[in-house]
Amino acid sequence: MNTEAIYSDETGQYVIPMEANPGDRVTIRLRVAHGHAREIYLLAQDTHYLMRPAQAGERFDYYETQVQLGDQSFSYCFSIRENEQEQCYFDKYGVSQEIRPEYAFRILPGFATPDWAKGAIMYQILVDRFANGDPTNDVLDNEYHYIKTMSRQIKDWNQLPNADFGVAEFYGGDLEGVRQKLYYLKSLGVEVIYFNPLFVSPSNHKYDIADYDHIDPHYGKIVLDQGQTLPEGARDNAGASRFINRVTAKENLEASNQFFVDFIAEAHARGIRVILDGVFNHCGSFNKWLNREKIYRPDKGYAPGAYEAADSPYHDYFHFYDENQWPDNGTYEGWWGHDTLPKLNYEGSEDLYRYILEIGKKWVSPPYNADGWRLDVAADLGHSPAFNHQFWRDFRKAVKSANPDAIILAEHYGDASSWLQGDAWDTVMNYDAFMEPISYFVTGMEKHSDAYEPGAQGDSERFENAMRYYMTKFTGSSLYTAMNQLSNHDHSRFLTRTNHKVGRASALGVAAASEDINIPLYKVAVLMQMTWPGAPTLYYGDEAGVCGFTDPDNRRTYPWGNADYPLVDYHRDMIMVHKCSSALRRGSFKFLKRMKNFISYGRFNEQERYVVAVNVGAETLEADVPVYLAEVADGFMVQAMLTNEKGYSIMPTKYAVKDGMLHVVLTAYSGMVFKQEV
């Protein structure tokens, strides 16, 4: 039995329809080598479904059966018998000699992810560091005090961030700057912008939200700008009248929200969707519900914060360890003990619970019309897994009731399958089935640049096994919308990882991040990113050659006027390869061949067959790739992309396919994408 030829998955080629409703009849298909199966069953719980021949070809036979769905998850695998001696099982991990329930295929009746997100090109923006379009809203020197330092305005756009955690350093990036660069994002091929938090906040990263109802005027519009900055040495933000007016005056808040309305309308008109960052596990110590800094005042229409008074209407929004400390009760629970990140006490306040659900609905509804949420530290919310799951089930209902086409995408490390059962999250930031394995295979580096494992670089077996395992944790609907990143705001820049320097900017110096980098190797990673199942997501500036160790060094400004333009062009062309292919967006995936430093895989559907081959080593490699496993017919494949140390090419060169094999020659640090149309 040719076990390599056995194939099925959860795409629309093998599960029809791919996203079914309760009560639907679903057709499930399996592929085997021609003439290599005498009897095939689909095994589901206690029921065995005989699969009947549906299509026969020169190389493969296709079998199918129909199942009637209920309202519960439908799990299954396949039993394949060639003769009395040869029998095997097939599940999401592959061929086995035993039934493995943990790797079963799954259909979740009623669960669907937005079609627009499947295989979408996303672009993450930390607004302060992208583009300054409106200098009048820049944070000023000494505007306020935060975490033992005064706010500081960085006037040199090209200055590198402080190697320490400089949360109060601001470069002046804003939404107007992003608006002015929409033409660039469109030309790059971007379909979705994912914004780091936009709501009122004292930090440059804004994961410490002060007001969930309003866009920060420093990112939006400041129409009322009066008051004083703090004198040198001051620490009391009650005297920061300029800052207080900027972020609490209704005129500025309403103008900023309206600017955001107009921004999204323009982005949508250009065919670009917008995802917001939802930081709902904790807020910030500046938050109007806590008001530790005394900036939200009664004369501005704000109620006392829970820090200020025991009878605050927001008392139950937070958990206080000592109920006898008012006024100025600093005994509230902080996320991971951080007093600047008070944890929200959902179990203690039904009002808070309902309020955040309304916030979830508000920003995906008219007039704002955002296209979904990325959920920060989503598995930490609440104080128990049971409560956490219940909250996200309610959040999903609220958001989808307001905008059924909105995506709910969570930050999560490790196995997220319990949240991907169709009732909570749509998908996740794909650390385990993309970022981590890719980083180790291509560079040998941990994603923070905190460790280097030379043996991991080029270890194709380790890479394949990791990918196989973690991809089984997704259904097809979640996998094809998963956010596939090489870098982001929490990890070192991927280009920096290619230099194998272990450590942080505080110890190594910021200059070290750009030393000895390997751009050809980075381009191989990009090629894999653009051909892997999921939504390829660029972290702003990666395409321009921005380097950096883990945060805050990874939050450098976009180098307008100083970008690596050949690298930008490469991204643009590689994105175009992805966008023009239905197979790369949502087609089937199969590993084809592996060797030391070499991996190849196929992406295919009824219209197209793609084959990808990469070499992450310093020596030339040759390989005969069994492309027939990706349903490639004998004849020719056409080169769609070649990248190596000399540059890259999209010249449509033909390569012969004979007896199901494609011979490839890959020089050092190179990758190739081949295409065959059906």
Short description:
With 678 residues, the chain is α+β, with helices and mostly antiparallel strands. The protein has 14 helices and 33 strands. Among the domains are: 108 residues, Immunoglobulins (Immunoglobulin-like, Sandwich), CATH 2.60.40.10; 90 residues, Immunoglobulin-like (Sandwich).
Kindly describe this structure:
The protein is 21% helix and 23% strand. The protein is α+β, with helices and mostly antiparallel strands and 678 residues long. Among the domains are: 3-110, Immunoglobulin-like, CATH 2.60.40; 588-677, Golgi alpha-mannosidase II (Immunoglobulin-like), CATH 2.60.40.1180. Helix 7 runs antiparallel to helix 8 (460-471) and helix 7 (431-443) runs antiparallel to helix 12 (519-529). It is globular, with a radius of gyration of 26 Å.
Fourth CATH level, the homologous superfamily of the domain at 3-110: Immunoglobulins
The residue ranges in which pLDDT falls below 50 over 5 or more consecutive positions are none
Cα-based radius of gyration, to the nearest Å: 26 Å
Alpha carbon gap, first and last residue: 27 Å
Layout of helices and strands:
Blueprint: E1 15-16, E2 25-33, E3 39-44, E4 47-50, E5 52-56, E6 60-68, E7 74-81, E8 87-90, E9 95-96, E10 105-107, E11 122-125, E12 145-146, E13 149-150, E14 152-153, E15 169-170, H1 175-180, H2 182-188, E16 192-195, E17 199-200, E18 211-215, H3 241-248, H4 250-269, E19 273-278, H5 350-362, E20 372-375, H6 385-402, E21 407-410, E22 427-428, H7 431-443, H8 460-471, H9 476-479, E23 483-485, H10 494-497, H11 505-508, H12 519-529, E24 535-539, H13 565-579, H14 582-586, E25 588-595, E26 598-604, E27 608-615, E28 621-625, E29 635-644, E30 647-649, E31 654-658, E32 661-666, E33 670-677
Parallel strand pairs: 11-16, 11-24, 14-15, 16-19, 19-20, 20-21, 21-22, 23-24
Antiparallel strand pairs: 1-2, 2-6, 3-4, 3-7, 5-6, 7-8, 7-10, 8-9, 12-13, 17-18, 25-26, 26-27, 27-33, 28-32, 29-30, 29-31, 29-33, 31-32
